[in-house]
Amino acid sequence: MLRQILSEMYIDxxxxxxLSEEQKQILFFKMREEQIRRWKEREAAMERKESLPVKSRPxxxxxxxxxxxxGADKEVWVWVMGEHxxxxxxxxxxxxxxxxxxxLRAKQEAEELRKTQSEKFTNNLKTKSQCSDxxxxxxxKTQNACKKVAEEEEVRQESRxxxxxxEKKTQKKELVKEKQDxxxxxxxxxxxxxxxxxxxxxxxxxxxxxxxxxxxxxxxSLAKQAREDYKRLSLAAQRGRSAEGxxxxxxxRRPPLPPKPQFLPPAGHPPKALGNSNQGVTRTASxxxxxxxxxxxxxxxxxxxxxxQKTSDxxxxxxxxxxxxxKANELLSTGLPGTFLIRVSEKMKGYAxxxxxxxxxxxxxxxxxxxxxxxLGVDQLQHATLADLVEYHKEEPITSLGKELLLYPCGxxxxxxxxxxxxx
Length: 424
Description:
The protein is an alpha/beta fold. The chain is 52% helix and 6% strand. The chain contains 9 helices and 6 strands. Strands 1, 2, 3, 4, 5 and 6 form a 6-stranded mixed sheet that branches. Helix 4 (90-134) packs antiparallel against helix 5 and helix 4 (90-134) packs antiparallel against helix 6 (161-244). It is rod-shaped, with a radius of gyration of 49 Å. It starts with a helix and ends in a 15-residue tail after the last strand. Residues 134-138, 246-254 and 259-285 have low confidence and may be disordered.
Protein backbone atom coordinates (compact mmCIF):
# COMPACT_ATOMS: atom_id res chain seq x y z
CA MET A 1 0.00 0.00 0.00
CA LEU A 2 2.87 2.39 0.78
CA ARG A 3 4.46 1.62 -2.60
CA GLN A 4 1.15 2.39 -4.31
CA ILE A 5 0.88 5.77 -2.54
CA LEU A 6 4.45 6.69 -3.53
CA SER A 7 3.89 5.64 -7.15
CA GLU A 8 0.70 7.71 -7.49
CA MET A 9 1.87 10.54 -5.15
CA TYR A 10 -1.71 10.79 -3.85
CA ILE A 11 -3.41 9.71 -0.64
CA ASP A 12 -7.11 9.48 0.00
CA UNK A 13 -8.28 12.22 2.47
CA UNK A 14 -10.34 9.68 4.43
CA UNK A 15 -7.30 7.44 4.75
CA UNK A 16 -5.19 10.44 5.76
CA UNK A 17 -7.69 11.29 8.51
CA UNK A 18 -7.03 7.90 10.17
CA LEU A 19 -3.31 8.60 10.49
CA SER A 20 -1.73 10.19 13.55
CA GLU A 21 0.47 13.27 13.33
CA GLU A 22 3.66 11.19 13.52
CA GLN A 23 2.40 8.85 10.79
CA LYS A 24 1.57 11.88 8.61
CA GLN A 25 5.06 13.32 9.12
CA ILE A 26 6.74 10.05 8.13
CA LEU A 27 4.43 9.57 5.13
CA PHE A 28 5.05 13.11 3.87
CA PHE A 29 8.79 12.60 4.39
CA LYS A 30 8.68 9.47 2.21
CA MET A 31 6.65 11.29 -0.48
CA ARG A 32 9.18 14.14 -0.47
CA GLU A 33 12.05 11.66 -0.93
CA GLU A 34 10.20 10.14 -3.90
CA GLN A 35 9.72 13.60 -5.45
CA ILE A 36 13.43 14.39 -5.10
CA ARG A 37 14.36 11.03 -6.67
CA ARG A 38 12.09 11.65 -9.66
CA TRP A 39 13.44 15.17 -10.05
CA LYS A 40 17.04 13.87 -10.10
CA GLU A 41 16.12 11.30 -12.74
CA ARG A 42 14.57 14.01 -14.94
CA GLU A 43 17.63 16.25 -14.50
CA ALA A 44 19.95 13.37 -15.48
CA ALA A 45 17.83 12.61 -18.56
CA MET A 46 17.91 16.27 -19.62
CA GLU A 47 21.70 16.41 -19.19
CA ARG A 48 22.13 13.28 -21.32
CA LYS A 49 19.85 14.80 -23.96
CA GLU A 50 21.80 18.08 -23.98
CA SER A 51 25.13 16.26 -24.23
CA LEU A 52 24.13 14.65 -27.55
CA PRO A 53 25.77 16.25 -30.62
CA VAL A 54 23.54 18.78 -32.38
CA LYS A 55 23.62 18.98 -36.15
CA SER A 56 24.90 22.39 -37.15
CA ARG A 57 22.83 24.27 -39.65
CA PRO A 58 24.50 25.25 -42.93
CA UNK A 59 25.52 28.89 -42.92
CA UNK A 60 24.03 31.16 -45.52
CA UNK A 61 26.27 33.03 -47.89
CA UNK A 62 26.85 36.63 -46.80
CA UNK A 63 24.90 35.82 -43.64
CA UNK A 64 25.36 37.82 -40.46
CA UNK A 65 26.29 36.13 -37.20
CA UNK A 66 26.89 37.16 -33.62
CA UNK A 67 30.06 36.18 -31.76
CA UNK A 68 29.94 36.56 -28.02
CA UNK A 69 33.01 37.51 -26.06
CA UNK A 70 34.10 34.66 -23.78
CA GLY A 71 35.71 34.94 -20.37
CA ALA A 72 38.43 32.88 -18.69
CA ASP A 73 35.87 30.16 -17.83
CA LYS A 74 34.90 29.78 -21.53
CA GLU A 75 31.48 31.18 -20.77
CA VAL A 76 29.80 34.29 -22.23
CA TRP A 77 31.41 37.35 -20.65
CA VAL A 78 28.82 39.49 -18.87
CA TRP A 79 29.48 42.82 -17.15
CA VAL A 80 26.94 44.13 -14.65
CA MET A 81 27.30 47.79 -13.75
CA GLY A 82 28.12 48.29 -10.08
CA GLU A 83 29.38 44.76 -9.29
CA HIS A 84 33.07 45.38 -10.10
CA UNK A 85 35.23 46.99 -7.42
CA UNK A 86 36.45 49.61 -9.90
CA UNK A 87 32.93 50.73 -10.87
CA UNK A 88 31.97 54.20 -9.66
CA UNK A 89 29.04 54.72 -7.29
CA UNK A 90 25.80 56.22 -8.51
CA UNK A 91 26.28 59.61 -6.83
CA UNK A 92 29.77 59.99 -8.31
CA UNK A 93 28.43 59.20 -11.77
CA UNK A 94 25.62 61.75 -11.30
CA UNK A 95 28.08 64.48 -10.22
CA UNK A 96 30.34 63.76 -13.21
CA UNK A 97 27.41 63.94 -15.62
CA UNK A 98 26.28 67.24 -14.06
CA UNK A 99 29.82 68.70 -14.31
CA UNK A 100 30.05 67.65 -17.97
CA UNK A 101 26.74 69.34 -18.72
CA UNK A 102 27.91 72.53 -17.03
CA UNK A 103 31.15 72.47 -18.99
CA LEU A 104 29.28 72.15 -22.29
CA ARG A 105 26.90 74.96 -21.30
CA ALA A 106 29.80 77.26 -20.35
CA LYS A 107 31.52 76.47 -23.64
CA GLN A 108 28.36 77.36 -25.55
CA GLU A 109 27.99 80.64 -23.65
CA ALA A 110 31.62 81.50 -24.36
CA GLU A 111 31.10 80.92 -28.06
CA GLU A 112 28.00 83.12 -28.04
CA LEU A 113 29.96 85.88 -26.27
CA ARG A 114 32.80 85.54 -28.75
CA LYS A 115 30.34 85.80 -31.62
CA THR A 116 28.79 88.95 -30.12
CA GLN A 117 32.21 90.57 -29.70
CA SER A 118 33.18 89.69 -33.28
CA GLU A 119 29.98 91.32 -34.56
CA LYS A 120 30.71 94.44 -32.49
CA PHE A 121 34.26 94.60 -33.82
CA THR A 122 32.96 94.28 -37.40
CA ASN A 123 30.52 97.16 -36.86
CA ASN A 124 33.33 99.35 -35.50
CA LEU A 125 35.46 98.62 -38.55
CA LYS A 126 32.59 99.59 -40.85
CA THR A 127 32.09 102.86 -38.99
CA LYS A 128 35.82 103.70 -39.17
CA SER A 129 35.90 102.91 -42.88
CA GLN A 130 33.00 105.29 -43.50
CA CYS A 131 34.74 108.02 -41.60
CA SER A 132 38.04 107.50 -43.51
CA ASP A 133 36.20 107.95 -46.79
CA UNK A 134 34.97 111.36 -45.64
CA UNK A 135 38.44 112.61 -44.58
CA UNK A 136 39.87 115.37 -46.86
CA UNK A 137 42.52 118.02 -46.22
CA UNK A 138 39.90 120.69 -46.41
CA UNK A 139 37.28 119.09 -44.14
CA UNK A 140 38.75 118.72 -40.67
CA LYS A 141 35.42 119.40 -39.00
CA THR A 142 33.80 116.44 -40.73
CA GLN A 143 36.70 114.19 -39.66
CA ASN A 144 36.39 115.21 -36.07
CA ALA A 145 32.64 114.63 -36.17
CA CYS A 146 33.11 111.11 -37.54
CA LYS A 147 35.66 110.30 -34.84
CA LYS A 148 33.31 111.54 -32.20
CA VAL A 149 30.42 109.49 -33.58
CA ALA A 150 32.61 106.33 -33.72
CA GLU A 151 33.80 106.84 -30.15
CA GLU A 152 30.25 107.36 -28.91
CA GLU A 153 29.09 104.26 -30.76
CA GLU A 154 31.96 102.20 -29.30
CA VAL A 155 31.22 103.42 -25.79
CA ARG A 156 27.52 102.73 -26.28
CA GLN A 157 28.22 99.21 -27.61
CA GLU A 158 30.62 98.40 -24.76
CA SER A 159 28.43 99.79 -22.01
CA ARG A 160 25.09 98.42 -23.13
CA UNK A 161 25.52 94.60 -23.28
CA UNK A 162 27.64 94.32 -20.11
CA UNK A 163 24.72 94.48 -17.59
CA UNK A 164 22.62 92.22 -19.75
CA UNK A 165 25.35 89.56 -19.94
CA UNK A 166 25.99 89.75 -16.22
CA GLU A 167 22.32 89.36 -15.52
CA LYS A 168 22.07 86.36 -17.84
CA LYS A 169 25.12 84.75 -16.25
CA THR A 170 23.64 85.28 -12.79
CA GLN A 171 20.32 83.74 -13.81
CA LYS A 172 22.05 80.74 -15.38
CA LYS A 173 24.18 80.21 -12.30
CA GLU A 174 21.09 80.30 -10.10
CA LEU A 175 19.30 77.81 -12.36
CA VAL A 176 22.32 75.51 -12.37
CA LYS A 177 22.55 75.70 -8.58
CA GLU A 178 18.85 74.95 -8.19
CA LYS A 179 19.15 71.94 -10.50
CA GLN A 180 22.15 70.66 -8.61
CA ASP A 181 20.32 71.06 -5.30
CA UNK A 182 17.31 69.20 -6.69
CA UNK A 183 19.48 66.39 -8.04
CA UNK A 184 21.35 66.06 -4.74
CA UNK A 185 18.05 66.01 -2.86
CA UNK A 186 16.65 63.34 -5.21
CA UNK A 187 19.78 61.22 -4.80
CA UNK A 188 19.52 61.43 -1.00
CA UNK A 189 15.84 60.47 -1.12
CA UNK A 190 16.65 57.49 -3.36
CA UNK A 191 19.40 56.40 -0.97
CA UNK A 192 17.02 56.64 2.00
CA UNK A 193 14.35 54.60 0.17
CA UNK A 194 16.91 51.97 -0.86
CA UNK A 195 18.25 51.69 2.70
CA UNK A 196 14.71 51.25 4.08
CA UNK A 197 13.87 48.69 1.38
CA UNK A 198 17.05 46.70 2.10
CA UNK A 199 16.34 46.79 5.82
CA UNK A 200 12.76 45.61 5.30
CA UNK A 201 13.81 42.79 2.96
CA UNK A 202 16.58 41.77 5.36
CA UNK A 203 14.17 41.64 8.33
CA UNK A 204 11.65 39.54 6.35
CA UNK A 205 14.41 37.23 5.19
CA UNK A 206 15.70 36.83 8.75
CA UNK A 207 12.18 35.98 9.97
CA UNK A 208 11.68 33.36 7.24
CA UNK A 209 15.15 31.96 7.97
CA UNK A 210 14.31 31.59 11.66
CA UNK A 211 11.05 29.81 10.80
CA UNK A 212 12.78 27.41 8.41
CA UNK A 213 15.50 26.66 10.97
CA UNK A 214 12.86 25.93 13.62
CA UNK A 215 11.00 23.61 11.23
CA UNK A 216 14.24 21.80 10.31
CA UNK A 217 15.12 21.38 13.97
CA UNK A 218 11.67 19.93 14.68
CA UNK A 219 11.98 17.47 11.78
CA UNK A 220 15.43 16.41 12.93
CA SER A 221 14.18 15.80 16.48
CA LEU A 222 11.24 13.74 15.18
CA ALA A 223 13.54 11.70 12.94
CA LYS A 224 15.98 11.15 15.81
CA GLN A 225 13.15 10.05 18.10
CA ALA A 226 11.84 7.67 15.43
CA ARG A 227 15.31 6.11 15.00
CA GLU A 228 15.65 5.65 18.75
CA ASP A 229 12.19 4.04 18.91
CA TYR A 230 13.08 1.71 16.05
CA LYS A 231 16.34 0.63 17.74
CA ARG A 232 14.57 0.08 21.05
CA LEU A 233 11.76 -1.92 19.50
CA SER A 234 14.18 -3.96 17.37
CA LEU A 235 16.25 -4.91 20.43
CA ALA A 236 13.09 -5.86 22.33
CA ALA A 237 11.88 -8.00 19.42
CA GLN A 238 15.25 -9.76 19.20
CA ARG A 239 15.12 -10.53 22.91
CA GLY A 240 11.58 -11.88 22.52
CA ARG A 241 12.55 -14.10 19.58
CA SER A 242 15.63 -15.43 21.38
CA ALA A 243 13.48 -16.30 24.42
CA GLU A 244 10.90 -18.14 22.33
CA GLY A 245 13.58 -20.20 20.53
CA UNK A 246 12.58 -22.52 17.71
CA UNK A 247 9.50 -23.92 19.42
CA UNK A 248 7.04 -21.89 17.34
CA UNK A 249 5.67 -23.72 14.29
CA UNK A 250 6.97 -22.49 10.95
CA UNK A 251 3.64 -22.79 9.12
CA UNK A 252 0.48 -21.71 10.99
CA ARG A 253 -2.43 -24.05 10.87
CA ARG A 254 -5.97 -22.92 10.23
CA PRO A 255 -8.07 -23.18 13.40
CA PRO A 256 -11.61 -24.48 13.38
CA LEU A 257 -14.38 -21.97 12.82
CA PRO A 258 -16.00 -20.57 15.99
CA PRO A 259 -19.49 -21.80 16.90
CA LYS A 260 -22.27 -19.55 15.71
CA PRO A 261 -24.37 -17.98 18.49
CA GLN A 262 -27.96 -19.02 18.95
CA PHE A 263 -30.63 -16.31 18.99
CA LEU A 264 -33.93 -16.39 20.84
CA PRO A 265 -36.87 -15.27 18.71
CA PRO A 266 -38.96 -12.36 20.05
CA ALA A 267 -42.40 -13.04 21.48
CA GLY A 268 -45.11 -13.63 18.89
CA HIS A 269 -42.70 -14.55 16.04
CA PRO A 270 -41.72 -18.03 14.85
CA PRO A 271 -38.08 -19.03 15.42
CA LYS A 272 -35.65 -18.84 12.50
CA ALA A 273 -32.64 -21.07 12.23
CA LEU A 274 -29.20 -19.70 11.33
CA GLY A 275 -27.47 -21.54 8.52
CA ASN A 276 -27.04 -21.07 4.80
CA SER A 277 -28.25 -18.11 2.81
CA ASN A 278 -31.84 -19.50 2.71
CA GLN A 279 -32.08 -19.76 6.52
CA GLY A 280 -29.48 -17.26 7.66
CA VAL A 281 -29.64 -13.77 9.04
CA THR A 282 -31.04 -11.19 6.65
CA ARG A 283 -28.48 -8.47 5.90
CA THR A 284 -28.36 -5.63 3.46
CA ALA A 285 -26.50 -5.94 0.17
CA SER A 286 -22.86 -4.92 0.63
CA UNK A 287 -20.84 -2.99 -1.85
CA UNK A 288 -18.24 -4.58 -4.10
CA UNK A 289 -15.41 -3.10 -2.00
CA UNK A 290 -16.75 -4.72 1.17
CA UNK A 291 -17.14 -8.04 -0.65
CA UNK A 292 -13.51 -7.83 -1.80
CA UNK A 293 -12.37 -7.17 1.77
CA UNK A 294 -14.39 -10.15 3.07
CA UNK A 295 -12.97 -12.39 0.33
CA UNK A 296 -9.45 -11.21 1.12
CA UNK A 297 -9.91 -11.97 4.83
CA UNK A 298 -11.22 -15.47 4.20
CA UNK A 299 -8.58 -16.42 1.62
CA UNK A 300 -5.46 -14.80 3.06
CA UNK A 301 -6.00 -13.94 6.74
CA UNK A 302 -7.84 -16.96 8.14
CA UNK A 303 -4.88 -19.29 7.37
CA UNK A 304 -2.69 -16.90 9.40
CA UNK A 305 -5.00 -17.11 12.45
CA UNK A 306 -6.05 -13.47 12.13
CA UNK A 307 -8.37 -12.50 14.97
CA UNK A 308 -7.64 -15.56 17.13
CA GLN A 309 -5.98 -15.64 20.50
CA LYS A 310 -2.34 -16.64 20.60
CA THR A 311 -2.70 -19.87 22.63
CA SER A 312 -6.25 -21.01 21.82
CA ASP A 313 -8.71 -21.38 18.94
CA UNK A 314 -11.14 -18.77 20.21
CA UNK A 315 -11.76 -15.33 18.84
CA UNK A 316 -9.82 -12.65 20.73
CA UNK A 317 -11.99 -10.20 22.74
CA UNK A 318 -10.30 -7.22 21.07
CA UNK A 319 -11.09 -8.38 17.50
CA UNK A 320 -13.96 -6.76 15.58
CA UNK A 321 -15.28 -6.96 12.05
CA UNK A 322 -15.62 -4.24 9.46
CA UNK A 323 -16.31 -1.11 11.52
CA UNK A 324 -16.38 2.53 10.58
CA UNK A 325 -14.33 5.18 12.33
CA UNK A 326 -17.36 6.66 14.09
CA LYS A 327 -18.52 3.26 15.29
CA ALA A 328 -15.10 2.52 16.76
CA ASN A 329 -15.07 5.86 18.58
CA GLU A 330 -18.53 5.11 19.97
CA LEU A 331 -17.44 1.72 21.30
CA LEU A 332 -14.32 3.17 22.95
CA SER A 333 -16.08 6.20 24.45
CA THR A 334 -17.36 4.27 27.48
CA GLY A 335 -13.98 2.74 28.39
CA LEU A 336 -10.93 3.82 30.37
CA PRO A 337 -7.70 5.25 28.90
CA GLY A 338 -5.83 2.25 27.50
CA THR A 339 -8.93 0.57 26.00
CA PHE A 340 -8.35 -0.67 22.46
CA LEU A 341 -9.81 -2.77 19.65
CA ILE A 342 -8.61 -4.03 16.27
CA ARG A 343 -11.05 -3.72 13.39
CA VAL A 344 -10.97 -4.65 9.72
CA SER A 345 -10.63 -1.50 7.63
CA GLU A 346 -13.65 -0.66 5.47
CA LYS A 347 -11.61 1.01 2.71
CA MET A 348 -8.44 -1.04 2.36
CA LYS A 349 -7.16 -4.57 2.75
CA GLY A 350 -5.74 -4.24 6.22
CA TYR A 351 -6.54 -3.49 9.84
CA ALA A 352 -6.80 -0.47 12.10
CA UNK A 353 -6.06 -0.33 15.82
CA UNK A 354 -8.36 2.13 17.62
CA UNK A 355 -7.00 3.29 20.98
CA UNK A 356 -8.54 5.49 23.70
CA UNK A 357 -6.01 7.83 25.32
CA UNK A 358 -6.42 10.69 27.76
CA UNK A 359 -6.52 13.15 24.85
CA UNK A 360 -9.10 11.17 22.86
CA UNK A 361 -9.34 8.33 20.34
CA UNK A 362 -6.32 7.50 18.17
CA UNK A 363 -6.25 5.24 15.14
CA UNK A 364 -3.22 3.37 13.78
CA UNK A 365 -3.19 1.52 10.45
CA UNK A 366 -1.79 -2.03 10.44
CA UNK A 367 -0.11 -3.29 7.26
CA UNK A 368 -0.75 -6.98 6.50
CA UNK A 369 0.55 -7.11 2.92
CA UNK A 370 3.90 -8.90 3.53
CA UNK A 371 2.68 -12.03 5.39
CA UNK A 372 3.37 -10.13 8.62
CA UNK A 373 1.74 -7.43 10.73
CA UNK A 374 3.26 -4.03 11.49
CA UNK A 375 2.08 -0.48 12.09
CA LEU A 376 2.23 1.70 9.03
CA GLY A 377 4.85 4.40 9.49
CA VAL A 378 5.25 4.05 13.30
CA ASP A 379 7.85 1.41 14.26
CA GLN A 380 8.08 -0.90 11.19
CA LEU A 381 8.50 -3.87 13.58
CA GLN A 382 6.96 -6.97 11.96
CA HIS A 383 5.02 -9.64 13.87
CA ALA A 384 3.91 -13.08 12.75
CA THR A 385 0.27 -12.71 13.90
CA LEU A 386 -2.09 -10.04 15.16
CA ALA A 387 -2.01 -11.66 18.60
CA ASP A 388 1.78 -11.29 18.70
CA LEU A 389 1.44 -7.61 17.87
CA VAL A 390 -1.09 -7.09 20.68
CA GLU A 391 0.95 -9.07 23.23
CA TYR A 392 4.10 -7.11 22.35
CA HIS A 393 2.46 -3.71 22.77
CA LYS A 394 0.98 -4.60 26.14
CA GLU A 395 4.49 -3.90 27.49
CA GLU A 396 6.01 -1.66 24.82
CA PRO A 397 4.28 1.61 23.81
CA ILE A 398 3.26 2.15 20.20
CA THR A 399 4.86 5.61 20.06
CA SER A 400 7.29 7.29 22.41
CA LEU A 401 5.28 10.52 22.45
CA GLY A 402 1.89 9.03 23.29
CA LYS A 403 3.07 6.09 25.42
CA GLU A 404 0.14 3.96 24.18
CA LEU A 405 -0.03 0.61 26.05
CA LEU A 406 -2.74 -1.89 25.12
CA LEU A 407 -4.35 -2.49 28.52
CA TYR A 408 -8.10 -3.11 28.21
CA PRO A 409 -9.57 -4.94 25.21
CA CYS A 410 -12.94 -3.59 24.03
CA GLY A 411 -15.20 -6.64 23.53
CA UNK A 412 -18.46 -7.18 21.71
CA UNK A 413 -21.38 -5.15 23.01
CA UNK A 414 -24.00 -6.33 20.53
CA UNK A 415 -25.32 -9.68 19.33
CA UNK A 416 -24.65 -11.08 16.82
CA UNK A 417 -20.93 -10.18 16.81
CA UNK A 418 -19.80 -7.73 14.16
CA UNK A 419 -17.18 -10.20 12.86
CA UNK A 420 -19.69 -12.96 12.05
CA UNK A 421 -19.72 -12.34 8.29
CA UNK A 422 -15.94 -12.81 8.13
CA UNK A 423 -16.07 -16.41 9.42
CA UNK A 424 -19.13 -17.70 7.56
